[in-house]
TrEMBL record:
Biased composition annotated in UniProt, kind: Basic and acidic residues: 249-260
Organism: Cellulosimicrobium arenosum
Protein name per UniProt: DUF3710 domain-containing protein
InterPro entries, per the entry: DUF3710
Ranges where the record places region Disordered: 1-72, 226-260
Length: 260
């Protein structure tokens, strides 16, 4: 794996901070087997439900895998590592809490956040509507379409180009409802507009393992992430006081970089 960076921000951004170019990497591996997954099968039968598709492909709950395998332990998320991949941890400046992780490889980015969810129902439908409303309010466009993980959003978000002109930034929002957790990913760069370029990071997302702790948590409370090999020493927030995430894809904060 390549560079590891820590991003410090004043808000919980939903946009990956994609850095410099990285070499194209091989596909991630299936849970616990070390074998390369078949990432070409992004299409499923019309008779397959979104829930069946998600459970068959992943992301996975920790109860579904026998061992961590070739994944980086980030606490609530075990992230598959691929050659040339660069990671950035997003840190809330006020609380010093890690709010997300962003992976970049080959000109594409994937930002990941894990949340608590109700035991009996998912929250992706509701969150998807909120993201769509946020993008539209900012003057962007968004389409709600079927994808390899179920319903997803294809968005074009207003942005300022390096030369000061107004342009758009494409993004794909994907989400999976798991047992008492919800995992959301945002694909940017080449992966947001090119299906072939997206295959590697789709495979990474599909092979994530979510480790849901046993603590009671209100819906949308961020699950605890930590730096690789550096588990937190104390609880980060009391039960009943969730740190509600913001879904504004255009906000970002200053960066502090650590290279390991």
């Amino acid at each position: 794996m390549g560079l590891f960076r820590r991003t410090r921000s004043t808000s919980q951004s939903t946009e990956p901070q994609v850095g410099g170019s990285a070499d194209q990497a091989d596909d991630a591996t299936d849970p616990g087997t070390g074998a390369a997954p078949d990432v070409g099968g992004t299409e499923t039968s019309d008779a397959t439900t979104d829930g069946d598709r998600a459970s068959a492909r992943g992301p996975f709950d920790s109860t579904q895998v026998g061992e961590r395998g070739p994944r980086v332990d980030l606490g609530a998320v075990w992230l598959p590592g691929v050659p040339g991949m660069e990671l950035r941890m997003e840190v809330d400046k006020k609380t010093q809490r890690i709010t997300g992780v962003a992976a970049a490889v080959g000109g594409s980015g994937l930002q990941i956040q894990a949340f608590a969810a109700p035991r009996t129902e998912g929250i992706w439908d509701e969150i998807r509507s909120e993201i769509a409303a946020s993008v539209t309010k900012q003057g962007g466009t968004v389409d709600d379409v079927p994808g390899p993980f179920g319903r997803e959003l294809i968005a074009k978000i207003p942005a300022t180009t390096p030369d000061g002109r107004q342009g758009v930034r494409p993004a794909r929002f994907v989400g999976v409802d798991g047992p008492r957790w919800f995992l959301r990913g945002v694909l940017t760069g080449k992966a947001a507009v090119d299906q072939q370029e997206a295959r590697l990071l789709e495979s990474v997302f599909a092979n994530i393992v979510v480790v849901r702790d046993q603590s009671p948590r209100p819906p949308r409370d961020l699950l605890t992430l930590h730096l690789p090999g550096k588990a937190p020493t104390a609880p980060e927030s009391p039960v009943g006081a969730p740190q509600a995430p913001t879904f504004d894809p255009t906000r970002r904060g200053p960066e502090i970089t650590e290279i390991h």
